[in-house]
Amino acid sequence: MEPLLGELPLRFSRLPMFPFFDLAHYAASVLSLKEQRGAVEISCHSPIACWFSAMLYCFGGSILSSLMLGEPPVAFLANTTNVLLASSVWYLIFYCPHDLFYRYVSCLPIRLLVSGMKEVTRTWKITGGVTHAHSHYKNAWIVMIAVGWARGAGGGLISNFEQLVRGVWKPETNELLKMSYPVKVSLVGAVLFTMQHTHYLPVEVHNLMLFYTIFLVVVKVAMMLTEFRTSPFAVLENALGSFLFGFQPVCMKAKAKAKVSYNGGTPVNESTSGGETGDSVKKRHAKKTE
Amino acid sequence: MEPLLGELPLRFSRLPMFPFFDLAHYAASVLSLKEQRGAVEISCHSPIACWFSAMLYCFGGSILSSLMLGEPPVAFLANTTNVLLASSVWYLIFYCPHDLFYRYVSCLPIRLLVSGMKEVTRTWKITGGVTHAHSHYKNAWIVMIAVGWARGAGGGLISNFEQLVRGVWKPETNELLKMSYPVKVSLVGAVLFTMQHTHYLPVEVHNLMLFYTIFLVVVKVAMMLTEFRTSPFAVLENALGSFLFGFQPVCMKAKAKAKVSYNGGTPVNESTSGGETGDSVKKRHAKKTE
Amino acid sequence: MEPLLGELPLRFSRLPMFPFFDLAHYAASVLSLKEQRGAVEISCHSPIACWFSAMLYCFGGSILSSLMLGEPPVAFLANTTNVLLASSVWYLIFYCPHDLFYRYVSCLPIRLLVSGMKEVTRTWKITGGVTHAHSHYKNAWIVMIAVGWARGAGGGLISNFEQLVRGVWKPETNELLKMSYPVKVSLVGAVLFTMQHTHYLPVEVHNLMLFYTIFLVVVKVAMMLTEFRTSPFAVLENALGSFLFGFQPVCMKAKAKAKVSYNGGTPVNESTSGGETGDSVKKRHAKKTE
């Protein structure tokens, strides 16, 4: 496809993330933090917890991958410029008088732009993670996938502990139990770039980066415009799931139960998790009865 | 005893763990995971969380000791062969059609063999941990004990966080509050091998390995055959406990209370922990009253 | 001020912490552990959890800062003398017959001395943390503040996980959400010593150490003598808070609500956190209703 696209992929792969794309990433992250339930109240009575939470949202990926590779998790703080950038975005979004900045950023066109640019940074993060892991362990492709995934999904995977900073604790759910779309797509990306890096995928890295990014941005924008929430992998997942993991009697029963209760109105996961996580479920019921 | 046993201990200490003993360790670990409440449901609706949980069971020791020594906790993923081995054991035990493999492995004779071989790997893990810690800190015997213990007990000590992956959270119990037998025996082993390594114990390492392993295997098998659940250290513990820690008025009262309520039918720990861990206990009571 | 104070600051800055000040730090830490609700019961039925908890209290700062800088968190165990010192203090305070030692240490004059000396070690910890971070990252002042703070506040910042060891879990509160005085003053100290270290503060380090320590000790002793519990920074905080973070409509409402409910008798934080941390709050209400 070189002749077709010419220099474009190569030039694209040399796109600098700093400062504009980083800014967009920080803005999108802090926006999603502000839209968390109770985040605004936290921002009022303990700005430091709020700032810490925001940093976990913005730099979660690098923190997690550093922990995984036994490097200093505070390394990201050494990049003073980026931290100050993220902090000022956090300050403007949370504390700007009359929420002016928040309103401005969260109006649809700006929001689309910001979210699109954030998705671009995801590609860079994943490739960065894969290469970094490769520099530690030669051809340990599992490590490469893991670190690439951690770098790309970042905030999502440590959400339980990010919530803990804000005094929220939801043990009955985590991103491994019920993956959100960004976590899934980061995993797919990590696998692709690892395969490319270990030459199992006969594509040049800058072509892969271009097409993966286009996919990310298009899907993200489409998801935001249409209220279409189910992940584009749903079909693939179900096929793969029932092919690999579907042969177990209990699971088949669970699925059947799930279908029934789904027609009955309650979401699938609720019912399949009926027997699971005794305490948490009990708690949930308790809450309902309260 | 050299003439008596001849070459046996030396040859035994050169026994390779890979692949058969490792396989047994993975099988035993994944079996105990599958027998956790709610694990099967998890395996149905989120295989990735289940796989992650299984890896924590299989490689918990190396993960924990890496964290303690500031090394990359993902190092175990670099050993691709072992990870694939563990993963395939996990797959067969959880997703084999009609649970054939699970039924096969969990029938008593096989189970005895597997559990016995798993205990052998424990010795190797502990010695490995002690030597590894020694290579970091010369003669820091506390570190050697800690790392040896972590490597040997592994999964048990991080069980709270392993459960969190499956959406279960039981803060009111952990392996330090109420040690299980494997954790205890690993601690004893770590102490013994550290003393041997620092020459306070005038035994050759391969003799110690042989006798410690024999002890492990015999006790384990005995525990599985007879439904005898109390640890063989119970007597020693009580003696030591009341000698070292028994002189405090409150504890004496607690013990008295415990005895009473024990005759009354409720387990000791329940009553002694009466005042302790206010919230968790409240919760438990709340649940009962619900 | 050199002529005025002469050699005093310099000599003071060369004061050795080992063994007396360290001893005082261990005593004060273990005392505050023993005064935690339910700690004594734990000490009866699982001394190991209690010991581990005590070590987290005594060495929390060095553990946390090691984790942040990707160094072995067990490093503190390599300093056998200090660990044995702390352990014997722990043993005497928890298990001395008839609580003799505890009663002796917790009588006011001794307690004042011990607490005062503990505050002195705080200065040394903070300066140590700042210098140590500087040796890793040149002029990364955010890292220096973070590590200095972690080393100085230590136990407080990891309190959630220290409680977890004792089977207590209070997700709805942590030291970032609602800072205690020691955590605040450590943060201030970390900022000051970092500014001094990066030459933004034109003071010599030993002068700063002297005056910061005097401030710590005086405030601590005053707090213990008078039942005056509000932090000396309260005024400054409120001014700064309303100047920096006060312009947001929601916060103003929250503050108003807070004031009202405060006059109404319930504490501020309770009411401002009305919307926040849904679950935890629900739980708290549930408890009340129980």
Q: How many DSSP-defined strands of chain A? A: 0
Q: In which range does the helix fraction of chain A lie? A: over 70%
- Whole-number tally of structural domains of chain A: 2
Q: Which oligomeric state applies?
A: homotrimer
What's the rounded overall pLDDT mean of chain A? 85
Portion in strands of chain A: under 5%
Structural class of chain A: mainly alpha
Largest beta-sheet details of chain A: none
Low-confidence stretches of chain A: 262-290
H-E string of chain A: HHHHHHHHHHHHHHHH
Transmembrane segments (chains A, B, C): 12-33, 45-68, 74-94, 207-226
Organism (chains A, B, C): Gekko japonicus
Subunit structure (chains A, B, C): Homotrimer; conformation seems to be controled by binding to diacylglycerol (DAG).
Protein name (chains A, B, C): Trimeric intracellular cation channel type B
Which key features would you list for this structure?
mainly alpha; 290 residues; disordered C terminus; homotrimer
Tell me about this structure:
Chains A, B, C: It catalyses: K(+)(in) = K(+)(out). Chains A, B, C: Belongs to the TMEM38 family. Chains A, B, C: It comes from Gekko japonicus (Schlegel's Japanese gecko). Chains A, B, C: Keywords: Endoplasmic reticulum, Ion channel, Ion transport, Membrane, Potassium, Potassium channel, Potassium transport, Transmembrane, Transmembrane helix, Transport. Chains A, B, C: Residues 262-290 are annotated as: Disordered. The structure is a homotrimer of 290-residue chains. In chain A, helix 3 packs across helix 6 and helix 9 (141-153) packs antiparallel against helix 11 (181-197). The first copy, chain A, folds into 2 domains: 13-240, no CATH class; 252-289, no CATH class. With 290 residues, chain A is mainly α. The first copy, chain A, is globular, with a radius of gyration of 21 Å. The longest helix of chain A has 29 residues, at 108-136. Chain A contains 16 helices and no strands. Chain A has helices at 2-5, 8-13, 20-34, 39-45, 47-68, 80-95, 100-105, 108-136, 141-153, 159-165, 181-197, 205-225, 234-244, 249-263, 268-272, 278-289. The A-B interface holds A 67-70, 136-137, 140-143, 146-147, 160, 169, 171-174, 176-179, 241, 244-245, 247-251, 254-255, 258, 268-269, 272-280, 282, 286, 289 and B 37-38, 40-49, 52, 66, 70-75, 77-78, 80, 83, 94-99, 164-170, 286-287, 290.
